[in-house]
Design goal:
six-stranded parallel sheet, two-stranded parallel sheet, alpha/beta, 9 helices, about 50% helix
């Protein structure tokens, strides 16, 4: 009888001990899982910090690479930039530029394919070539990153066909500050501006506009008022179009800047650039 009671007590004791052991093991397991999760969280945080540091370093390098190079000089420079060509008036523009021995930067498109062969003439006559998209179709280009780069690669292929090389210069249709892209893809300009620089391209906006993109032609007087500026580095926007008031008055534009003491350069001759504030 006593033996039976002792056995029962031993059984109860061992059961309690087993429950306590399992409980302790469970707590230990939970603690281990918690520790693992905390370690993973710390690791992820450390990786994110490293990646952010790399991104900041890359951004700094890019910004350093495109800083203006005229800080220590009093030189006044005008970079004439001509968008949306080539067209049937490109030869005339080239003749006027030759007359004044002025070199410009042409941001070309592929939509005017009938005149694409003029890209070769532009290059051969000493001007710089920049990409301005193939289609110049905002709705398509800014619908997605994939669409943008399909179009971007297509214009680069066209440029290489006529010049032998791709270009590192790019101008966004509507400029990097355009708001219309919001209609098609929110945040796409913020992504593209950073990504192009990361890939080694230099996108260039403008700080003076002729205003020649209006439907109604501008008078010569109005055009000259538009281009007046006190800035030492002028990135001038005009267009390669038959209806462009700037194309029709290019001689007057060049003479104005010459009289103001400006010299003329292409954007591939400098590390100067100009970026708008991104709005999308």
């Amino acid at each position: 009888m006593n033996y039976s009671k002792t056995k029962n007590r031993m059984t109860i004791f061992l059961s309690i001990l087993c429950v306590i052991s399992l409980s302790l093991f469970g707590c230990s397991q939970k603690k281990t899982v918690k520790t693992q999760k905390e370690t993973e969280k710390k690791t992820d945080s450390a990786i994110k910090k490293i990646e952010k540091k790399k991104e900041e370093t890359q951004k700094k390098k890019t910004e350093e690479a495109i800083k203006p190079n005229t800080a220590n000089t009093g030189e006044k420079i005008c970079y004439i930039t001509i968008d949306d060509g080539p067209t049937n008036v490109t030869p005339h523009i080239l003749d006027v530029l030759d007359k004044y021995n002025v070199k410009a930067t042409f941001f070309v498109i592929g939509a005017t394919s009938k005149y694409s062969h003029y890209i070769k003439n532009i290059k051969e006559r000493g001007h710089a070539i920049g990409a301005h998209s193939y289609s110049h179709d905002y709705k398509y280009i800014y619908a997605s990153k994939e669409n943008f780069y399909k179009d971007f690669n297509k214009i680069q292929t066209l440029i290489k066909k006529y010049t032998g090389t791709e270009t590192k210069l790019f101008r966004f249709p509507g400029g990097s500050s355009n708001c219309i892209s919001k209609k098609y893809c929110k945040g796409i300009m913020t992504y593209l501006t950073k990504d192009l620089l990361k890939k080694g391209y230099n996108y260039v906006d403008w700080n003076v506009s002729t205003g020649d993109a209006t439907l109604k032609p501008l008078s010569k007087a109005k055009l000259l008022r538009n281009i007046k500026t006190s800035q030492k580095n002028v990135v001038l926007l005009m267009h390669d179009r038959p209806e462009s008031s700037a194309y029709q008055n290019l001689s007057s534009i060049i003479e104005y800047y010459k009289n103001q003491g400006y010299t003329f350069k292409t954007l591939d001759q400098t590390n100067y650039t100009f970026h708008h504030q991104v709005n999308n």
